[in-house]
Automatic annotation (TrEMBL):
One of its GO terms (biological process) is cell redox homeostasis. Residues 61-117 form the Glutaredoxin domain. This is Glutaredoxin domain-containing protein. Gene3D superfamilies: Glutaredoxin. It comes from Lysobacter capsici AZ78. Transmembrane segments: none annotated.
C-alpha cells in the first residue's frame, strides 16, 4: 500500500465514524428512539404525575415492566398475591410509559415505586418489606 491509499482509507473510516456518531445523536434526540424529542418528560426522582395517575386508579404502587421480563411477571404475581392495587406501566407496549421510564432514567426492569420509596429488580423479601413499611406508615398500598 502506498501513502495515498493509506490516507484515503483513514479518511473514509473517519468519515464513516463521524456520520455514525452524528446519526446516533440525531436519532436519540429526535425522539425516534426513547429518550429525546418533544413531549413532557418525568424527571429523575419526580414521578408525581405517574403517582397521581396511580392514585386515581386506586393504588399507590407503580411498576414499570417489559412484557417479556420474567422478573416482572414474578413481581406482578407477588403484588397480586398480596392483594396490592397497582398500576403496571409496560414500557414496550405503551409509548407514554416509555417516555415516563426514559424521564425517570429507568434502564432495567422491574422498577417498583411504593409511595416515596422505590426498588429496582425483583427481590421478593425486599418487596414485601417495602409493602409492609408502607402499610405501617398509614398509607396502605392495598
Amino acid at each position: 500500500m502506498n501513502f495515498k491509499s493509506i490516507l484515503t482509507t483513514i479518511l473514509v473510516v473517519a468519515l464513516a465514524l463521524g456520520l455514525g456518531v452524528g446519526a446516533g445523536y440525531l436519532v436519540r434526540n429526535s425522539g425516534l428512539i426513547g429518550g429525546g424529542g418533544g413531549g413532557a418528560q418525568v424527571t429523575q426522582g419526580d414521578y408525581s404525575a405517574v403517582y397521581a395517575n396511580a392514585k386515581a386508579s386506586g393504588g399507590e404502587v407503580v411498576m414499570y415492566s417489559l412484557s417479556t421480563c420474567p422478573f416482572c411477571v414474578k413481581a406482578k404475581a407477588l403484588l397480586e398475591k398480596q392483594n396490592v392495587r397497582f398500576v403496571e406501566r409496560v414500557i414496550d407496549k405503551d409509548q407514554a410509559a416509555r417516555k415516563e421510564a426514559d424521564g425517570l432514567k429507568i434502564n432495567s426492569v422491574p422498577v417498583i415505586y411504593i409511595g416515596d420509596k422505590s426498588m429496582q429488580g425483583f427481590d421478593e423479601a425486599k418487596l414485601v418489606e417495602l409493602l409492609n413499611a408502607h402499610a405501617k406508615a398509614g398509607k396502605p398500598a392495598a
